[in-house]
Amino acid sequence: MSSRRDILKTAGMGGLSLAGLPRLTLAAPTGGDKRFVFIFLRGAMDGLSAVPAYGDPQYVAKRGALAIAAPDTAGGALKLDGLFALHPLLPTLHALYAKRQLAVFHAAATSYRDRSHFDAQDLLENGTAKAHARDTGWLNLALGGMPPASAVALGTSVPLVARGPNAVSSWSPSSLPAPASDTLERLAQLYRGDALLEPALARARDANEMMAGTIMKGETQPTVALAQAAATFLTKADGPRVATIDFGGWDTHTNQHGEYGVLTRNFRQLDRTIATLQSALGPVWDRTAVAIVTEFGRTVAPNGSGGTDHGTAGAAFLLGGAVNGGRIIADWPGLSDRALFEGRDLAPTTDLRGMFKAVLRSHLGVAESFIETQVFPDSKSVKAIDGLFAA
Questions:
Q1: What's the start-to-end Cα distance of the chain, in Å?
Q2: What secondary structure does DSSP assign to 155-222, as a single string?
Q3: Based on C-alpha coordinates, what's the Rg of the chain?
Q4: Phi and psi torsions of 115, nearest 5°
Q5: Phi, psi (degrees; rounded to nearest 5) at 151
Q6: 205-259 pLDDT per residue, tens
Q7: What is the DSSP letter of 239?
Q8: How far apart are CA 130 and CA 376, in angstroms?
């Protein structure tokens, strides 16, 4: 017969999860002033749709039916400069760019050059130059070089980037009905005096009471609710200072730009997620940086199913009140046949680790020596991008 302790261990929780209560484990209270949110678009976002290079002379010919209309035309992209724009379903990001709170990265990638989602995600998250080189994430390791701080992972699981030796909480909304109050009271009586279960239940109840009034009731876009939750945690004086949000479903092999296509839905959801995060953080937004990345880009030319296949370089974003934005960071390789990587992909010219290193060094106060030896080993040739944060 399983004991109460066995059941808890089998559930795999550092805290306690009850039917109807969101899953939550709590780390120790933390200090620090700056906030960082890491949003991973899993499945490989099409960077040439998110940030169309409408000014490239080959853009329309190469993209065909997937080309986004030029700015100042019906349904056109949102202009950034004479070469780049944003997808028309990303107005929140466009407004942030105008406020100089968004930096756009293009032709960006990790050092990975194959096309496996699993390997590409692992390499991006573990912080080394090889997939599966270690089972800890660079963001978790970076916590060890920060002023006292912890992180919260929002979603159904803790992503690799947040796993490791340092304190990380986790939270996800539950789809189960809420337990009756008398059930909770009976559990409290049953666990009274138990060194493991009594405090675990108390933490879970306290945290869920805290979250109950902040999560949007009936919200159908999951990352919007997670953004609200992230703000709730990050605005607490004794809460975590770093949060991760997983946003899956970006593998757009078919019907990419249809009215009800995957990418159309995802861009709408991404824009609402950022708008919600900005609004819910309130004045804390001014001390926040948000990185939005994906494991690799997609092919320049569409496939025969109205979508795109796995590629190499793509687009990424760094935004927030703490970001010195209103700029595009791209050594643009162009879309001519001879410029394409392996004859099909946008060529990679900017290493995403340069952005990550800048966030850690210039925003979160991690020492450069710690970044180079512990967080991103074997990457000294990749320099932190200067100027992303005010001096």
A1: 61
A2: SSS--GGG-SSS-EEEEE---SPPPPHHHHHHHHHHHTT-TTHHHHHHHHHHHHHHHHTTSPTT--SH
A3: 22
A4: -130, 35
A5: -130, 160
A6: 555 555 555 555 556 789 999 999 999 999 998 899 999 999 999 999 998 988 8
A7: S
A8: 11
